[in-house]
Amino acid sequence: MNEGWLNDEYIVVFIEAESALASSKYELSQYLPGYTLVGLRGWDDLIVISPAGVMCSLPTIPIDPKMIVPFFFPEDLSLESDERFTGKIKWYLKPLIFGGDPQDEENLTWVSHEQHAELVVWWNNQYKSIKAQADNA
Predict the structure, then answer these.
(1) Is 113:87 a contact under the CB 8 Å cutoff?
(2) pLDDT, tens digit, for every residue of 122-136?
(3) How far is the C-alpha of 29 from the C-alpha of 27, rounded, in Å?
(4) N or C: lower Cβ tally within 10 Å for the chain?
(5) What is the tens place of the pLDDT at every residue in 50-76?
(6) How far is it, in rounded angstroms, from Cα 54 to Cα 28?
């Protein structure tokens, strides 16, 4: 795993072996079949590669194909490491899609990569459930 600042964004890039494991932990195939998780962008977004080999990003919650936007790394990718954040991911206790306030410091915590994957899966399941209930109403 390589992580650090790329301009004003904190980036986490998984090496190839980590990528498959991360895709599984985040249950990516449930939401984006055929996509591969290659990293995290600014703590709030996933960086994925489509089955056609196109790099994109989208929010961690919800993982929704409609929210995919193009993304690319510069050819000479060089991340500026920052020991304050190594191995940590910023997490909103109440995600923004559910009305969480990004300015409220009480809504912010730091989690491990393992915890992040678990939280992303749990909150995406909540989103999916709420959306299904709304669609059936």
Answers:
(1) yes
(2) 999 999 998 888 887
(3) 6
(4) C
(5) 999 999 999 999 999 999 999 999 888
(6) 16
